[in-house]
Amino acid sequence: MTSALDVEQTLDRANSDVVLIVDDVPDNLSVLHDALDESGYTVLIATSGEAALQRAQQALPDIVLLDAMMPGMDGFEVARRLKAAPETAHIPIIFMTGLTETEYLVAALEAGGVDYVTKPIKPKEVMARMGVHLQGARRARQEARQAGQARNALDAFGYASITVRMNGMGDGKLIWQTPLARDLLMRYYGTSAPQTPEPVLQWLRRHLAEAGRQIEPPRLAVEQGPRRLTFRLHQQTGDGDGDGGGDWLIVMREISDDAVIEAMSLSFKLTAREAEVLYWVVKGKINRDIGDILGASPATIKKHLERVYAKLGVETRTAAAGMAVNRIRLLHPQFEC
């Protein structure tokens, strides 16, 4: 299935606006398509409500010209669904209708339309109406692009970010994520958008219930071997409803102690496995737990540990851990025992 990113990359948005025309009458499509194409617009076509929703999700057009009366899913329902989806809610919709009664025009506006033109379609009139609404669409698109670039830039520095939507009922859907955030959530929790991992959701709900919005809650952390993922509540990015609602930006960072293990190996002339055993001793793990982590028996861990004692010149677990901690703090001050 073609993704929105794939379609986005094929559209020349720098030089033309993208228009989606939705009409089940081929003659209407042909006249309007040719006029818009000659005027420099990039034109997409859909001949049914279902196809319109699919094309809109894939291409995220700058504006939609929508026939009100179509068999099956009519234009009013298409508009409601476009406005209900976060990805397409910002796209202006101009209805094309042969119905001039007030009740139909009101229905078009209530469904999410910003304007309407009556049939038979006059391309110049359509383009004049489009020009007014595209100015606002361009500004919204530029602001969204700048926000996306700023957030995606976090990935380059090892920070990932997600946005979780908390309405009055606390539905907690994950509505936005950077590429790095997507990979980290899958690796640590096995989840993907729109599902927010339950521990993260509980942490956020607890903060909203207990501390409100003024105090940053303690960071959430989850460990996976020598790696741990931390979550920090950054800010509210959407309007709240006074009861913890709105969109919440959460910044994530993965911290790895692989470098610490490597440093212990080099400093004490340990093998990679011996350094791993010593690392978990520093972390307070007993031989059985270390064996479970490394996939070895407690007896094997004991043998590794005996060799560690010999290389460090100590006789006890406590002495080995103390020597390792002192050395690690010199090399990696940020290390947490």
Overview features:
3 domains, Beta-Lactamase, elongated, 10 strands, alpha/beta, Arc Repressor Mutant, subunit A, 337 residues, 5-stranded antiparallel sheet, Rossmann fold, disordered N terminus, 19% strand
Largest β-sheet summary: 5 strands, parallel
Radius of gyration: 29 Å
Number of domains: 3
Which class of secondary structure composition applies to the elements?
alpha/beta
Mean pLDDT: 80
Percentage of residues in strands: 15-25%
Mass-distribution shape: elongated
Q: Show unreliable segments.
A: 1-14
Total strands? 10
What is the fourth-level CATH superfamily of the largest domain? Response regulator
Order of helices and strands: HEHEHEHEHEHEEHHEEEHHHHH
The percent range for helix content is 40-55%
According to CATH, the fold-level topology of the largest domain is: Rossmann fold
Order of strands in the sheet with most strands: 2-1-3-4-5
End-to-end Cα distance, whole Å, is: 47 Å
CATH class of the largest domain: Alpha Beta
Count of helical regions = 13
CATH architecture of the largest domain: 3-Layer(aba) Sandwich
